[in-house]
Design brief:
The protein is built from 7 helices and 13 strands. The protein is of the alpha+beta class.
Length: 338
């Protein structure tokens, strides 16, 4: 039999015929992928626009609702001497407990009328940072909020905390703060360390929230948690205070998470209106939780957290003065979202 010969020109044409559809299919697939990416980007943009629209709507509506209360707020703010006296008396009367770490529970911190003004001025939930569950918060003073809310909480952050609360808290726990400073900076006079109250943040917590036993960042020497309880809020699910087996100092300046198996409940601080929990971040642990089946289903729980510690310029100085053997214990981010 003769050998079948293939015409080179015909073979080449056939190959090109097969390759052409394959190339076209790849091009179409690439175009489809690019379209899908573009559609996803558009979807993300639409979701962002919808969220912004919701924020603005809530802001406008809330601003209108609060406007009639502005004159009452202004009158309340003018009574600074009354507020200062009330804050001083409340902190002075609060028992200071030294175990498992220095802490106190301050009741009736503010005059009732001022406390109600602050609670009324909590911004709508839509204005809180859109973060994962359990991390919703707003820095104080607010960048975006109704005029009433901005006025009330600016007064809290810029006057009440630094001028009324922080100095009284420092005075109350002065021996314990001095001991903590001397432990870390043996050659430094504790009185030379400048301490201030931060503006803080309002935290929004919902059903299912849980934070394991821990200690807060070290550079916030003292943590203050004010419960913004409303009339309909249950006293349950406040803050748990723990002692810790074989307790040791935190290994860095970052939050120090502790194995719950080593923790033993000392006190369950109830979530009561106008109450403030104050503690030194030197030992032990604290935590909090809200059950997933807590009622009502749309439960919202607000707290105002701020810290008393060295300002940024003082932190730089203190880092430089740390003994070599203690420097590693004070590295890490001072403020972490958790």
């Amino acid at each position: 039999m003769g050998v079948l010969k293939t015409d080179p020109d015909r073979r080449s044409a056939a190959g090109e015929t097969v390759a052409a559809p394959a190339a076209s299919l790849a091009t179409v697939q690439q175009q489809c992928d690019e379209m899908l990416i573009g559609m996803k980007a558009m979807g993300d943009q639409l979701a962002e626009l919808a969220a912004r629209e919701s924020e603005l709507r809530a802001l406008i509506e809330h601003d209108a609702l609060l406007e009639p209360y502005m004159s009452q707020l202004v009158k309340t703010i003018r009574k600074s001497e009354v507020t200062s006296a009330a804050v001083g008396a409340a902190i002075e009367q609060a028992p200071l407990r030294l175990e498992p770490f220095p802490y106190m529970v301050v009741d009736d911190l503010l005059p009732t009328r001022l406390y109600k003004c602050l609670v009324r001025g909590i911004p709508a939930p839509e204005l809180f940072d859109r973060k994962s569950a359990g991390k919703e918060h707003l820095a104080v003073p607010f960048a975006l909020a109704p005029a009433y809310s901005r006025r009330a909480w600016r007064y809290m952050a810029e006057t009440i905390v630094p001028e009324m609360i922080a100095p009284r808290v420092i005075e109350k726990v002065r021996p314990q703060i001095d001991a903590w400073i001397s432990q870390n900076w043996p050659g430094l006079a504790p009185a030379d360390v400048e301490l201030r109250g931060s503006g803080g943040r309002i935290m929004l917590r919902r059903r299912g929230y849980a934070i394991a036993p821990h200690r807060d960042p070290k550079w916030g020497f003292i943590t203050c948690i004010m419960y913004l309880a409303r009339p309909q809020d249950s006293e349950s699910w406040g803050t748990q205070i723990y002692s810790v087996d074989e307790d040791t100092e935190a290994a860095s300046a970052a939050p120090y998470w502790i194995d719950p198996k080593r923790c033993h409940l000392v006190e369950d601080v109830r979530f009561r209106p106008n109450r403030m929990l104050v503690f030194l971040n030197s030992g032990g642990a604290h935590g909090a939780h809200i059950p997933a089946d807590a009622q009502p289903e749309d439960l919202e729980r607000y707290i105002y957290q701020f810290r008393v510690g060295p300002p940024a310029d003082s932190i730089a100085m203190l880092k430089a003065k740390l003994p070599a053997e203690r420097q590693s214990l004070w590295v890490g981010k001072a403020i972490i979202d958790y």
